Amino acid sequence: MNAGLAEIDARDGVRGELDATAMVGGIPLVVRPLRQLARLGWTRARVVASDPAAVRAALDAYPVPSSLAVEIATEPGAGAALLLDARAIHRREDLTGGAPQPVLQVRTRADAAEAVGILERQIRKSVQADGVVTYYLVRPLIRPLSRALLDTRISPNQVTIAALLCGVSAAACAVAGGRPATIAAGLLYWIGFALDCVDGELARMRLSSSRFGEWLDSMTDEISIFSLLAGLGVGLHRDGGGTLWLAIGVGGSLIGALTVARLYVDLHRRGLPIDTAQFPWFFNPPPGVEAAPSRTGRLLNGLGYLVRRDANVTVVAILLLFDLRDVAILLVALGAAIASAVTITHYAVMALRARR
Fold first, then answer.
1. Could you report the per-residue pLDDT of 72-91, keeping only the tens digit for each?
2. Where does the chain have alpha helices with state H?
3. Does residue 330 sit in the same domain as residue 229?
């Protein structure tokens, strides 16, 4: 928590330059540093503006967290620990104090376009964090859509809901069975996954991530996977495939959902991001401890790459496009089984450690 005062200079420049309320990267320029400061724990900010009413209107339309008290003035004041240019892009790590040099001053439309590119690079995840398929295939494909939605009022949560609808619709098509419905299931399943990447990009670009958004995003992933698994089992059974497929689909879905639910309860209880990839697994070193991963850790991390959602979803979608439902359901069930086995092992190991 930083109790110092940050001062944001949002005064107009020379005639013809963009003002501080111009939309750049999905939010007004003046809102970006305020949201950054709120995330870093600053509690007080003063915005110096030529047109206080315009700045207030921008903050009403694109609010900052209530943890940051924002004062709007027409003249600079005294006692500021941090001085920022509202019409600029700053690095997060520079917002600690003083008058940091911005990455880019945004004065023209050309600057604004360059700023969007800089922001996209700042939020870009690594291959390890994103997954090979997402990093090299999905991100380049969805980037034009992300940019098109950036300056609209469509929220990341609305995109997540669209992804959820695609996932549920894919499961419904899988239940219907038959080749046309199976192809539709494959397309909808992959489109839902792609949209699930768009919502994250919008949230990071606009600095609008929220706890509710984390829950919605994660639940969309799980519902899409387990509903498709159950839908494939029902569809194969309806098409005369026998009760084994029904057991694999519905049974695997129920076991997987119950197992993963335990992880989310723990993530919430610990106050961690609602993301199973950030769960403190038993094979990881304790927080703050630098240690080489164990042989077990390397093996389980390797299995994790094999069942990464981006690769799994893409392969399953391709299989469904070729109406290979039996192979697709086995692949989804295998991923769910591995995840369940690792989770059960985790809690067994932690219970043994607690007894010792």
1. 999 999 989 999 999 999 99
2. 31-39, 52-61, 109-123, 127-130, 132-133, 139-150, 156-176, 179-206, 211-238, 243-246, 252-270, 295-306, 309-321, 325-355
3. yes
